[in-house]
From TrEMBL:
Keyword Signal applies: yes
Pfam families documented for this protein: OprB
Signal peptide region: 1-25
InterPro entries according to UniProt: Carb-sel_porin_OprB (IPR007049), OprB_Porin (IPR052932), OprB_sf (IPR038673)
Keywords tagged on the record: Signal
Highest taxon listed in the record's lineage: Bacteria
Family the entry assigns: Belongs to the OprB family.
Name by which UniProt lists this protein: Carbohydrate porin
C-alpha cells in the first residue's frame, strides 16, 4: 500500500469521527463515551467503586516527511503501543489503609520516520518525530508495584517493577515529538534511566513535609537485560543476574498556587541523580569512571483560567537536563512548551500546543568524532563513505499541534514538526514532518 493510500485512509477515519452525529450518543464513537467498549452493563463503574480499575489503550503515531531530511523521498511510518493494565485499591479490597497496587503490560510495534528518512543513518539518533517508538517490538511487564502511605499519607513508600519517570523527572506530554513529551532524562541517558515501556526493580519514598513541599528519593537497578530488544528478549525477565549498579535520584517538588498567576496551580521540581555503574569516558577510549551524574529542572504552571474552569486556560512548561560531561554524549536538553486547553466553548477539552526543544551535544564527544574522521583521512562531510562519522552538534525540534478530544475514549492529534539539524548534523537538510497521533481507550 502506498503512502497516499495510507494517508487517505487515516484522513477518512479522522473525518468520520469528527463528523459523526450526536444522535449516535449510545454508540462506541459517541462524544460522551468513557470507554470504547462501554461500561459492561454498569459492571465497570461498579468494579471501580469496589477498588478494581482496568485499563486498555492503544496509541498510534504516524508521520510522513514533507521536505528535507537526509532522504527526501516521501515515506509514511506508523508506530503503536498497546497498554493493558489494572489498578487495585487495597484499602477497599483488603482494608490496607492508603495502599494501592498496579500492573501494566505493554507491546510496541511499527517503524520510525526519523530513522528511515530524517537523520543520517550513520549517526546515533537524538530526537524522534514519534515518541512512542523505541525499546523494541516485544511484550513487556512495564509495571508491577505496590504503594502505601504512612503518617496521614504524608509519607509514601513504593516498591516493585516500574519506570523511573513514573516518580522522578516526570512532565506533561501534550506532543508527538520525543523531546517534547514527558521526562527528558531517558532521552539523553537511556543506558541508566529507563522510562515506559521498560520496567525495572526499584523503590522510592516521598515525604510531604509541608503542604506545598515534597522530597523524594529512589533506588533503581541498572540492568542491561531490561533494555534488550531482539526477538529472543524476555520483557518479563525478573532476575537481577546482570545488575551493573544502581541509579539513585533525589527530587524536591514545590506545588504552590501563585498570586502572580491569580492563585493558579503550578509544579516546580529540581532533582539530581548518581549512577553507581561504571561508565566509559565519552572522549578517551579505555578510560573508565566510577559513576555518572545528572541534574534536572521541571516546571509547569497554569497561566490563565477560562470561565472559572481550572481545566481550561493557558498552560506552560519548561524542562531542562544537564548531564555529566565526562561520560554523556548529550550534554544538556531544554524544552519550552505552551498549550491552551478549552479555547472554544464548543470544544472545552481540546487544546492547541506549541513546543520547542533542543539537544546539545557534548563538545568532547564532537571533538572525538572529528578526530576519528581526521585519522581516516576526512576533513569535511562525506555523504557516501561508510566509515565516515557524521559530526553531531545540536538538534532543534519544534511542534505545532491541535488535540481533538472527541470523547474520553478517543483522541486525535494532528501535528506539524520542524527539525533543525537532524541528529545534530549540520550538513543534513532541515526537515518538515506531518504527524497524527491517535489514542483509544477501550
Amino acid at each position: 500500500m502506498n503512502t497516499h493510500s495510507l494517508l487517505l485512509k487515516m484522513s477518512c477515519l479522522a473525518i468520520a469521527i469528527c463528523t459523526a452525529q450526536s444522535s449516535f450518543a449510545d454508540q462506541p464513537w459517541s462524544q460522551d463515551r468513557q470507554w470504547l467498549l462501554g461500561d459492561w452493563n454498569g459492571q465497570r463503574q461498579q468494579l471501580e467503586k469496589d477498588g478494581y480499575k482496568f485499563t486498555a489503550a492503544m496509541m498510534s503515531q504516524s508521520a510522513t516527511n514533507l521536505d528535507g531530511g537526509y532522504n527526501d523521498d516521501n515515506a509514511f511510518k506508523n508506530a503503536a503501543q498497546l497498554a493493558l493494565g489494572a489498578n487495585f485499591d487495597l484499602e477497599k479490597i483488603a482494608g490496607w489503609k492508603n495502599t494501592t497496587a498496579n500492573i501494566l503490560i505493554t507491546k510496541r510495534d511499527g517503524n520510525a520516520l526519523t530513522l528511515d528518512r530524517i537523520k543520517d543513518p550513520r549517526s546515533s539518533a537524538l530526537g524522534n518525530s514519534q515518541e512512542i517508538y523505541g525499546r523494541g517490538k516485544i511484550w513487556r511487564l512495564t509495571q508491577a508495584w505496590v504503594k502505601t502511605g504512612f503518617a496521614d499519607n504524608t509519607v509514601q513508600f513504593k516498591i516493585g517493577r516500574m519506570g523511573m519517570s513514573d516518580d522522578f523527572n516526570g512532565s506533561q506530554c501534550e506532543f508527538q515529538n520525543l523531546l517534547l513529551c514527558g521526562g527528558q532524562l531517558g532521552k539523553s541517558i537511556g543506558s541508566i534511566w529507563y522510562n515506559l515501556p521498560v520496567g525495572l526493580w526499584g523503590t522510592n519514598i516521598k515525604y510531604q513535609f509541608a503542604p506545598e513541599w515534597t522530597l523524594g528519593v529512589g533506588v533503581y537497578e541498572i540492568n542491561p537485560d531490561n533494555t534488550k530488544t531482539d526477538k529472543d528478549s524476555d520483557g518479563f525477565n525478573l532476575d537481577m543476574d546482570h545488575v551493573k549498579g544502581a541509579t539513585i535520584p533525589v527530587e524536591l517538588a514545590w506545588r504552590p498556587k501563585l498570586a502572580a498567576f491569580n492563585g493558579l496551580a503550578g509544579e516546580y521540581k529540581v532533582g539530581a541523580l548518581y549512577s553507581t555503574a561504571e561508565a566509559n569516558d565519552i572522549a578517551t577510549a579505555g578510560k573508565i569512571h566510577d559513576g555518572k551524574h545528572s541534574f534536572w529542572l521541571n516546571t509547569q504552571q497554569q497561566l490563565t483560567q477560562k470561565d472559572g474552569d481550572p481545566k481550561r486556560g493557558l498552560f506552560a512548561s519548561f524542562n531542562a537536563v544537564i548531564n555529566d560531561k565526562a561520560t554523556t554524549a548529550v550534554q544538556s536538553t531544554q524544552q519550552l512548551a505552551f498549550w491552551y486547553r478549552g479555547a472554544f466553548d464548543s470544544r472545552p477539552n481540546d487544546s492547541i500546543g506549541l513546543g520547542v526543544a533542543n539537544y546539545l551535544v557534548n563538545d568532547r564527544y564532537k571533538d572525538r568524532q572529528i578526530a576519528t574522521n581526521t585519522s581516516r583521512g576526512y576533513d569535511q562531510y562525506d555523504a557516501l563513505a561508510a566509515d565516515y562519522v557524521p559530526v553531531q552538534r545540536d538538534e532543534l525540534n519544534v511542534e505545532l499541534n491541535y488535540t481533538y478530544q472527541w470523547s474520553p475514549a478517543v483522541m486525535l492529534r494532528p501535528n506539524l514538526q520542524y527539525i533543525h539539524q537532524p541528529a545534530g548534523v549540520k550538513e543534513v537538510d532541515d526537515a518538515w514532518v506531518a504527524g497524527l497521533s491517535m489514542r483509544v481507550n477501550f
